[in-house]
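ok new one. same drill as before - structure tokens go in, u give me an amino acid for every spot. 266 of them this time. try not to just spam alanines like last time pls lmao
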């Protein structure tokens, strides 16, 4: 039996590698259950997981849970896709051309320095308090990290690859997309994963403003009425969305870079 388990293709080692990262999360849940079971923490501050699950069931039966998740996911993905595309485009331009860097880099640096809470009132003055404000806030929040990672990745591409591309007669567009952008892809994926994490954090702020649907709407109402179990539920939902989107991007990244033998730790 031990000889079978030692085979390189045996399923247990692979399963262990997939389960191991979740052990710390499982430990947190166990501590949460143990802490609330002996009532060492008041339920108003930290409700038991069973109460959080019961609140989720009630909201689901009322038709609010899944509709709120759907609205939040739609807002987040629309803003993240637009912001990611804009960040990659601006990063490629600034990374490829010094003149584009002179034009684009400082304005993006300024946007990065402005807190989201300070940016929101300005967006409200420009676009009102509708859906476009919430999506636009996500666009700005996600475009910035993608831009910097794309720009940095392109500037770290070996210059000899660009010179070789020129020797082979590649056009400016081909150099930017086939050489620079491909060489910067690992850094671009890091920016995308970071941007998706920011997406759900920004939506907490955006959906607390005049929203009638979404997880942030549930969170705001629960906070006003002191429903701590619903507040915890909304926090868990935002965290789950962050984990799921990050896992999907990581999966795409692994498929694209299957050929790369990167260091995975010791």
């Amino acid at each position: 039996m031990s000889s079978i388990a030692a085979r390189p293709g045996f399923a247990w080692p692979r399963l262990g590698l997939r389960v191991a990262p979740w052990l710390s999360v499982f430990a947190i849940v166990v501590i949460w259950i143990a802490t609330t079971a002996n009532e060492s923490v008041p339920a108003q501050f930290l409700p038991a997981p069973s109460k959080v699950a019961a609140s989720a069931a009630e909201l689901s039966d009322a038709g609010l849970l899944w509709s709120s998740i759907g609205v939040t996911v739609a807002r987040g993905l629309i803003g993240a896709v637009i912001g990611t595309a804009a960040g990659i485009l601006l990063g490629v331009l600034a990374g490829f051309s010094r003149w584009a860097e002179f034009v684009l880099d400082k304005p993006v640096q300024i946007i990065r320095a402005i807190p989201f809470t300070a940016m929101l009132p300005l967006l409200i003055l420009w676009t009102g308090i509708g859906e476009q404000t919430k999506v636009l806030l996500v666009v700005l929040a996600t475009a910035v990290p993608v831009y910097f990672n794309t720009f940095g990745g392109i500037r770290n591409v070996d210059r000899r690859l660009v010179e070789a591309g020129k020797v082979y007669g590649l056009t400016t567009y081909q150099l930017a997309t086939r050489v620079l952008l491909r060489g910067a892809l690992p850094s671009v994926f890091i920016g995308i994963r970071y941007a998706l994490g920011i997406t759900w954090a920004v939506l907490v702020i955006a959906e607390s403003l005049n929203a009638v649907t979404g997880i942030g709407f549930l969170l705001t109402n629960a906070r006003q009425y002191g429903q701590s179990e619903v507040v915890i539920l909304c926090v868990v939902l935002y965290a789950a969305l962050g984990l799921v989107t990050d896992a999907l991007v990581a999966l795409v990244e692994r498929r694209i870079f299957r050929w790369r033998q990167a260091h995975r730790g010791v």
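Confidence is low (pLDDT under 50) at residues 1-10. and btw The chain has one domain: 64-256.
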